[in-house]
Amino acid sequence: MSTSHSENSLKNWALLTVLTLIWGSSFILIKRGLEVFSPGEVGAYRMVAAATLLLPLSLPRIKNLSKTQVKNLLLAGLLGSFIPAFLFPMAQTQLSSSLTGVLNALTPLFVVLVGAVFFNTRITRRNGLGLFIAFIGVIILVAYKEGGNWGDSLAGINVYGLFVIAACICYSFNLHVIKTRFTKLKSIEISSISLLMILPMALIYLFAGTNFSYKLVTHPKAWEALCYLTILGMVGTATALVLFNIMVKSASPFFASLVTYTIPIVAIMWGVLDGEVLLLGHYIGIAGVILGVWIGNRK
After folding, report:
1. Domain boundaries, position 86
2. Cβ-contact 144, 78 below 8 angstroms
3. Residue 170 included in any domain
4. What pLDDT, on a 0 to 100 scale, did the predictor assign at position 252?
5. 299: pLDDT confidence band, cut at 50, 70 and 90?
6. What angle do CA 38, 29, 201 make, to 5 degrees?
7. Does residue 268 lie within any of the structural domains?
8. pLDDT confidence of residue 271
9. In this predicted model, what pLDDT tens digit does every residue of 137-172 receive, in sequence order?
10. Distances (CA, A) of 64 to 58, 68, 193
11. Transmembrane residues, as ranges (predicted)?
12. Which residues, 6 or more positions from 42, have their beta carbon under 8 angstroms from its beta carbon?
């Protein structure tokens, strides 16, 4: 029995490590894609790549769904994948990849907050304290200018951090939607079919609403950027969703939540390696966000 437990623990730690590397690297891949493509093109292509990879899993299963399940899966696809895929590149047009990765760690706290406001779940004093500390950390991050000075007016605040917060709120609503409306579907079905639901919108927007095709032909670095975005979609979204579902089933919720704290570490490492400069105020803000998430999310 101890051997089986050890193997299971090793498997979970391996999954945690791989997911940390994948999701922590997503922000630098977005940054590379933005060197050629617009935020909308980055988001749409990411969804196309992810949904295409999971077609063998989604297509055989969709015929067994009811109309209500299809509608709910469309909602899950919009909240959990489609909208955030556009919000993160928009944020990273004015926000470093490392700081975007840190702000993404707020998702567990917004799960608590959204649950309390919209789904009648209870918010504890510990949750409230964590939210407050993390909120202070966010304020420091968005108010600290690149030159090392504090913003002295609203114009000095990097409002693009709000796009990341909006994405975290979308993730939070999606989690509650999945919890309340998908009691009979397996997690792999939710992941693959929800991506299939938003695939037509992503394709129409990408090829009819942007200059994506033109850039592929004319921009000298287009195909290099496309490779980064393909990795982002197929590995950072599709494969990561499958691996996370496996980990959630075999590990405790607390263990699965550890990825929230490890993702910013990888995001910051990539940012520093890429020449991004983090100042003292940024590190103070980062510490506040991570501390707040830990206090509000610990068992």
Report:
1. 2-122+155-272
2. no
3. yes
4. 67
5. low
6. 50
7. yes
8. 93
9. 888 887 765 444 544 433 445 788 899 999 999 998
10. 11, 12, 11
11. 12-30, 42-60, 72-90, 102-121, 128-145, 157-178, 190-208, 228-247, 254-273, 279-296
12. 30, 33, 34, 85, 89, 229
